[in-house]
Amino acid sequence: MPPPRTREGRDRRDHHWAPSEEEALEKWDWNCPETRRLLEDAFFREEDYIHQGSEECQKFWTFFERLQRFQNLKTSRKEEKDAGQPKHSIPALADLPRAYDPRYRINLSVLGPDTRGSQGLGRHLPAERVSEFRRALLHYLDFGQKQAFGRLAKLQRERAALPIAQYGNRILQTLKEHQVVVVAGDTGCGKSTQVPQYLLTAGFSHVACTQPRRIACISLAKRVGFESLSQYGSQVGYQIRFESTRSAATKIVFLTVGLLLRQIQREPSLPQYEVLIVDEVHERHLHNDFLLGVLRRLLPKRPDLKVILMSATINISLFSSYFSNAPVVQVPGRLFPITVVYQPQEAEPTTSKSEKLDPRPFLRVLESIDHKYPPEERGDLLVFLSGMAEISTVLEAVQTYASHTQRWVVLPLHSALSVADQDKVFDVAPPGVRKCILSTNIAETSVTIDGIRFVVDSGKVKEMSYDPQAKLQRLQEFWISQASAEQRKGRAGRTGPGVCFRLYAESDYDAFAPYPVPEIRRVALDSLVLQMKSMSVGDPRTFPFIEPPPPASLETAILYLRDQGALDSSEALTPIGSLLAQLPVDVVIGKMLILGSMFSLVEPVLTIAAALSVQSPFTRSAQSSPECAAARRPLESDQGDPFTLFNVFNAWVQVKSERSRNSRKWCRRRGIEEHRLYEMANLRRQFKELLEDHGLMTGAQATQVADSYSRLQQHRERRALHQLKRQHEEGAGRRRKVLRLQEEQDGGSSEEDQAGPDPPGAGDGVDIQDVKFKLRHDLAQLQAAASSAQDLSREQLALLKLVLGRGLYPQLAVPDAFNSSRKDSDQIFHTQAKQGAVLHPTCVFAGSPEVLHAQEPEASSCDGSRDDKDKMSSKHQLLSFVSLLETNKPYLVNCVRIPALQSLLLFSRSLDTNGDCSRLVADGWLELQLADSESAVRLLAASLRLRARWEGALDRQLAHQAQRRLEEEEQDVPVSPKEVATLSKELLQFTASKIPYSLRRLTGLEAQNLYVGPQTIPATPHLPGLFGSSTLSPHPTKGGYAVTDFLTYNCLTSDTDLYSDCLRTFWTCPHCGLHAPLTPLERIAHENTCPQAPQDGPPGAEEAAPETLQKTSVLQRPYHCEACGRDFLFTPTEVLRHRKQHV
Known about the structure:
disordered N terminus, 36 helices, 8-stranded mixed β-sheet, alpha/beta, single chain, Rossmann fold
């Protein structure tokens, strides 16, 4: 039973009684949580060096406990020693203490709560204990400072030992005397990290250093910031796509080449920089070569601009002569010897169809290292492989070996990994364990990993090439060049003697090409030419490239951009081309964004365009996992891959918005790489900002103003997120993580969170990508857009497919005629230039190709002259695809299905007809046979009107926004919402029309004999006013008559008499009731000049035409009733019904 409360006790509590100094000292407990909380409140506030609850705070308490134990032990020993010695009186000097204390050497001071004006924080803390705590805090800061100085001294010794250290002054002196300097250094000489610091020391304050890869920008900025004692994000920063640590105080910025080119596009003279360092120029990337040409033209206009080209010792004379014999400072590499061991592989007979890489040679290298070198000797292994598939194969085998020996930590490294996964290669392995890093050629130059002692060189690399004739990208495996082999070997000798195992013969090495093929000579140049046009650098054919691309590639790119509407006939940028040049995506995806901005589909188009611009988020391992497939099935769309990606992103946003759910677990269960979804979100935001800047976003996307409570809550959340981000960056910059022995296939570092949601402020447990995502995006807006996207109507979906189809055109594939009898994996498709393409394994149609088969066959052919495979149907479909990629097979990547007839009529660049328009050929390779010529003529006429209105509305919108942006006098009338709504309605009615037709791909022989030629066409009377202002003229090569720039009438050869197509037949006008014998061409002319027909004009004026088209049946025929003397368009059933009225 507790003692009764006395009056004195009650009074003490009621008046907030505080214990006396003596009582507080007696009851003081340093380990009491409340005591520590009070001390943290007083000393670890927001403005202090150590923040309450941070990792640094935890480190301090660990230090404090050790300091207490040490002081207690020291005090007890001192008392024992003083007990046996007589006391001596030492005279005290003025202002000097009698006894020495180590704290007198500490050149720091700590303000307590009493000296900072803090009210109430130190009220319950005894002054003696506060003083003791302050001394302990001073010792901790001094200890940390000594550690930092120790690391700094070691760092300076390492910097001084680099080969380039002896050439620093020479580089600066040469740069002072010349505008361009070439610094050539072997691997490990230190040029990438030291040259920017030499410039900083020399007084340069506006330095840009370009890197070909984003990971190199990040790692170099961290390293240079650490070595130069600059907290990264201040004097030294990086700037990459969607992420930047650059600030007003930044003096050195590492950025990608593409980003620098975008800056030149905005400010051609680059006034913000004093020195440009172009690193890794020897790699000959596409944008690097273009940047060199731009700089060569810029330097005479900017004599104060200095340029440093940094390269490996590869073909140095090429770069020097390109810049008027620029001086070269050649720096030797590390002098550590590297032993080269050639281990050629014996050719073994292939036992299966699979050409999978044999991992046994790599395992033998690991075994030899384990047998020859004791585990106490440090040294990691770097394995160069050609691609991700090869990395996966070797990873699986080496993981098994590593789990058995417990002496290896296996890590993959390639550009498809997230930044967090890529950073794991820089962590250290546990004692007695080595790292085995399986990498693509990204580790040749862009990434430098300390501690590499062994290198395995497979001798292979996968490179992307472009075939302009087949219009496909080829990812092929090649032997590397001698220069690349030397680069790989050099990675083994950076920190000590190393060994390079080459899995090929020395004779193979001698047969290698000296240098790799420049990227500009093997890739598509569409985006480059578009960027050159936007930057006004002149004709791409005469641009001073360091090594010019093939002329055929340039001509193909210019023709492609002209076909896409980005260039006009004089090769100048069109309004849509100017906007496409500012979008950091392929032309076809940029067109989607612009086309989607016209309709009320901006939000879904933004998401789809972003999803198609990044690598596939679906993991390779998930393809063989039934659990992942089952979990992902509800997200799949039978409309195509873009809609599946659209569903995935929207579902992920919904998970993100629910605080109780873990998005990483959600992605892992479905075999989705979450960092790809983060990239989509970042790219989506960038697209949205670009469309807003150009006035192409409607007001519907304006955000609603939140109430004061919501704004306050949002402010608090963002403040907490900023604190988490800062704590993570501070912690990550001060320690090296220790890898754990991988127990799973996707192992990681010991600090990595394994399960459950991340608690707020959990130090390293925090998902930093999630924090950055929430800081960069308005989650409420994304959730609202995702929610509305899930409710897309059938009409919106059809219109969205139409926008995607036009954006992707002419990237079309037609199903093979015999696909219905093939199994899923054997489905074949044909493009205009490539036959026998197949669906990519990740394609949603690969598992359900039946949705692509034409249904409802209505007749075998239109005249009995075709095989049964040319079946009539109104549901023929084509595949629009984003890219055609050839590895071991040509694959269609990211496909969407679209209606064949309507899409070809709306999008074709070339459309040819016979006399009655029942036979159409689109772009010279797809033939359409329509069952009814009457319906064919009407559908063709409707498509011409819709094309003209759509194109006109788009041009007016872009021109109007361009005038507003330039603050010019507005001459073009903006497109009204009513006009857009009417156009949308008519497009939907057009695509919903059902007319039986057959679809097939023409053979090469048929395509050669397709046209009648100009001399065989019979005379046709002049028909003024055809299709509005169009005039009819004979086509000079095809024959027939050119109706528009894409439509040629009556130019196709036929098995029947040419004159039969032009014979007149009785026809009744649906508008004025005219009944007369007319040819198909005369019918079209009458419909366009009929006074009672709807005319082109203001929005809504043509609503009746598509409705009439929709109501007109394909079975209707002209019918003259003898009983009532009237003419009708009736189906056979309607004829019988009408006759019955006269009985």
